[in-house]
Inverse folding.
């Protein structure tokens, strides 16, 4: 590229994400647009998937392998079938993703080059690519979104699980070591980067999962979304094995069948490997008329209509080595909508939500059900908690506060 055009930018950044796509992955998209606004030339490599845009385009209609300009950001997509379960399926996904990303990074390197390679996980398998470009003077940033090692330990057990866990730890360690800087989502991840990665504190920066206030601003609620129920409880997010969806089914059973609260609708927005088993169990318990599961909603206005109609939100992730150290994106989004939350008592959830949530001891589905009913029956309490939550987002959690940390890290590189 001509030097005069190169000088228009502070530098060139290539962001890699394997397990999601933009703009649906809000954290990656927020990071990319923040860097763009700060004067960096930003490109992203991510999978293409059905519905990757807000519209209804199929994967065949999406641009793959070539750059798509999305709000001034070059997005390179590659076709990928996401695995939801099974060792061979995950191996196939990661194998294809690795070589697709390897090809695209080389293509971008030859075409325009990049100064920073910003790698998002999971999985932690891209350290060979990072090492190759670091040898050519590229700075490597590891954006540690999820504890891949703990995720492996949660999903696989026995001898096979131990082997996969040790392999995941090894990959995580090498990813730490090949990186110039590491971005983490909370203090728990910061401690892991120091303890397991052996990184000095000045090579780690916390950029929390904070929502943009303009993306999660309450709108006039559409009461028809309650489907003739007086109250609505809402879950929004990925429905994976570790996300507490099956625990939520037990909670719903207690609320509706055991405590006979037929006036409450549970709206479950999202998709994932646990969604179908959850729906089957709800049907077998005779709960279908008290549950609405519209799937993944990618239209922000429609999503906010659902969230604005809800009376309270739930975060049913059970305690585990993964969940106890993780910050869930949904918590900040719930708080932005100004509604109270019921959650199992996890350290990072408590740090984020503070006094805008009711915390239930882990595994106590009866207590969880009672907490829901209490908040619905005491609207003044839930409204007060919701107001405190939105104020905390405005003052501490919102993306504008996190963006400052991100741009400071990049300024360190630039200087």
């Amino acid at each position: 590229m001509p030097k005069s055009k190169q000088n228009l930018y502070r530098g060139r950044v290539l962001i890699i994400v394997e397990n999601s796509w933009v703009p649906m992955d809000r954290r990656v998209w927020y990071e990319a647009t923040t860097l763009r606004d700060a004067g960096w030339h930003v490109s992203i490599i991510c999978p293409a998937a059905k519905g990757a845009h807000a519209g209804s385009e199929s994967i065949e209609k999406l641009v793959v392998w070539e750059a798509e300009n999305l709000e001034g950001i070059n997005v390179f997509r590659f076709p990928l079938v996401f695995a939801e379960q099974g060792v061979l399926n995950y191996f196939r996904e990661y194998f294809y993703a690795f070589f697709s990303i390897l090809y695209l990074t080389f293509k971008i390197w030859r075409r325009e080059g990049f100064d920073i390679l910003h790698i998002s996980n999971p999985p932690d398998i891209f350290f060979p690519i990072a090492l190759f470009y670091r040898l050519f003077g590229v700075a490597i940033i590891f954006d540690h979104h999820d504890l891949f090692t703990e995720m492996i330990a949660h999903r696989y057990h026995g001898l096979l699980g131990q082997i996969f866990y040790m392999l995941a730890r090894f990959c995580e360690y090498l990813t730490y070591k090949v990186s110039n800087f590491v971005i983490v989502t909370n203090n728990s991840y910061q401690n892991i980067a120091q303890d397991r990665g052996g990184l000095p504190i000045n090579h780690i920066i916390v950029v929390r999962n904070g929502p943009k206030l303009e993306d999660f601003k309450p709108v006039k609620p559409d009461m028809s979304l309650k489907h003739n129920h007086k109250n609505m409880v809402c879950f929004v997010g990925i429905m994976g094995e570790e996300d507490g969806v099956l625990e939520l089914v037990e909670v719903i059973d207690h609320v509706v069948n055991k405590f006979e609260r037929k006036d409450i609708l549970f709206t479950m927005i999202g998709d994932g490997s646990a969604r179908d088993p959850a729906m089957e169990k709800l049907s077998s318990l005779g709960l279908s008329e008290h549950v609405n599961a519209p799937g993944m909603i990618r239209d922000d206005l429609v999503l906010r209509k659902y969230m604005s109609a809800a009376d309270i939100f739930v975060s049913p992730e059970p305690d585990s080595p993964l969940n106890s150290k993780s910050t869930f994106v949904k918590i900040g989004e719930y708080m932005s909508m100004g509604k109270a939350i019921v959650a199992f008592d996890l350290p990072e959830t408590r740090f984020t939500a503070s006094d805008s949530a009711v915390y239930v001891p882990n595994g106590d589905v009866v207590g969880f059900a009672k907490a829901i009913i209490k908040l619905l029956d005491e609207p003044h309490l839930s409204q007060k908690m919701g107001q405190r939550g939105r104020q905390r987002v405005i003052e501490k959690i919102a993306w504008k506060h996190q963006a400052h940390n991100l741009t400071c890290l990049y300024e360190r590189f630039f200087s």
Notes: Confidence is low (pLDDT under 50) at residues 1-5, 51-61. The longest strand covers residues 41-48. Residues 58 and 149 are 33 Å apart (CA to CA).
